[in-house]
């Protein structure tokens, strides 16, 4: 059996969008994918946003072990060799990235931050669920790509194509 494709999802605080993407890809990816997430400025308490966890749990996606991590964890020589790095927020996409071991493929899938939504608890949870569903749709497409032999160029091209494909649709 070949190694799984290792994907790192990046956001600023690694508390909502990137955490949800990590959990969804690990849920859908089977043995083909292994997902991680990190933030450029991870939360000091290392706790994911409670509504991100609630949205995932409502969809039957395991949240055990999820924690907010700084992206420096993945730029160390002993870090997992990453195949693909996907930014899921515009702020993280614009920041200078560390030099990643192995020079993985990159793509940007921008989503509005559900943590910025105000209103009742139900309205805020709805925003997190909308973001989770948008992530789920794109990740499902990634998982179902017929990639029997993945190389960096194919992975990057397909991940960017999925981003462009969704540009015409709703992100939230």
From TrEMBL:
Coiled coil: none annotated. Keywords: Arsenical resistance. Residues 5-145 form the Phosphotyrosine protein phosphatase I domain. GO terms for biological process: response to arsenic-containing substance. Gene3D superfamilies: 3.40.50.2300. It holds the Pfam family LMWPc. SMART domains: LMWPc (SM00226). PANTHER family: ARSENATE REDUCTASE. This is Protein-tyrosine-phosphatase. The lineage of its organism: Bacteria, Pseudomonadati, Pseudomonadota, Betaproteobacteria, Burkholderiales.
